[in-house]
Amino acid sequence: MNQLASADCEMRRALPATLQAAEEFFMDFRRRSQVLLGCVNSFAAELLVREALTNAVVHGCRADPNKQIRCSLRLKRRRLLIAVEDDGDGFDWRAAWSHAAELTDCSGRGIEILRKYANRVRYNGRGNAVAIVKRFS
Predict the structure, then answer these.
(1) Cβ atoms of residues 57 and 63 within 8 Å
(2) Is the pTM above the cut of 0.70?
(3) pLDDT attached to residue 7
(4) CA-to-CA distance for 33 and 43, rounded, in angstroms?
(5) CA-based Rg of the chain, rounded to a whole angstrom?
(6) Domain boundaries, position 98
(7) Cα(128)–Cα(48) distance, integer angstroms
């Protein structure tokens, strides 16, 4: 049995909406998950976690340290669940999801990353919370 099949990692925090706080949370996740995931799976997991956190800070809260993002990560039984919610106004995720980003676009590549690397993505109706599922082989 490999380590991913037998080990769990769970993290839950409320953070000020700053890139520094998001990076500190991300680095904690990286330290905890690398041993469990290995190199191949770590790339996808880290990319999804970093993208969700960065989007909440930059787009959701406009990097306002008076606002918060709430993040919950659970790695269990070959599956990573990422849940991120921010204090921002939200966005029209349906329109963004149906738009394919071009190489020259300044935004929209985050949706492409989610489409490419996640097995499931769900936003709340307001567009200020996302749940992402990544399954590993």
Answers:
(1) yes
(2) yes
(3) 59
(4) 11
(5) 15
(6) 3-135
(7) 16
